[in-house]
Amino acid sequence: MILPIVAYGNPVLREVAVDIDANYPNLDTFIANMWETMYGSNGVGIAAPQVNKGIRVFVVDTKQIIENLEEDEKNDYPGDEGIKQVFINAHIVDTEGEDWPYNEGCLSIPKIREDVYRPEKVTIRYQDENFVQHEKTFHGVTARVIFHEYDHLEGVLFIDHLKPLKKRMIKSKLDDISKGKVRVDYKMLFKK
């Protein structure tokens, strides 16, 4: 089932999400719905707060990014083959490398894209959908998407990484989104 995506301005996007355990009700169905919602809105990742659940769950599919790169672009992300993965109770252990820019967007902040600087690598501890514990290091565009989705668990949005002048320049667009004055081809939930 495709879930409505929470729009900018909804308080759930600013809350720190909570860890869950294997007894969380209907988790398999919720994760399946997250995948369906992400693909239905042409996303490459989505976090539970974006579908109005304040829990530490996100899904990422960067294989679709890597597979659609031009040959010369693949050199920009050496060794990054992409992932399709569920992250539960994720917590960043370490970051490495130089900050580098990438033009990011967000399903909760439609029609706005900006360059955001993030580190090259992230080491993250998380559980998979079977609650098996992992600790892995990711790099390239996969690390980028993980950072973005992880931020949602911390109540942080990609626009929070922008310089003050850039934020002022997009303020009216953000206000329009929070008031429901935006058209997208997926279901959105606006604050009332």
Automatic annotation (TrEMBL):
Q: Which residues form the active site?
A: E149
Work out whether the entry's keyword set contains RNA-binding.
Answer: no
**Catalytic activity annotated for this protein?**
N-terminal N-formyl-L-methionyl-[peptide] + H2O = N-terminal L-methionyl-[peptide] + formate
Q: Which UniProt keywords apply?
A: Hydrolase, Iron, Metal-binding, Protein biosynthesis
Its EC number is 3.5.1.88
**Cofactor needs:** Fe(2+)
Cite the SUPFAM superfamilies for this sequence. Answer: Peptide deformylase
* Single GO MF annotation: peptide deformylase activity
| InterPro entries with a match to the protein in the record | Peptide_deformylase, Peptide_deformylase_sf
Residues binding Fe cation are C106, H148, H152
Known function? Removes the formyl group from the N-terminal Met of newly synthesized proteins. Requires at least a dipeptide for an efficient rate of reaction. N-terminal L-methionine is a prerequisite for activity but the enzyme has broad specificity at other positions.
Q: State the protein's name.
A: Peptide deformylase
The record lists the organism as Chitinophaga skermanii
Instruction: Give the organism's phylogenetic lineage.
Output: Bacteria, Pseudomonadati, Bacteroidota, Chitinophagia, Chitinophagales
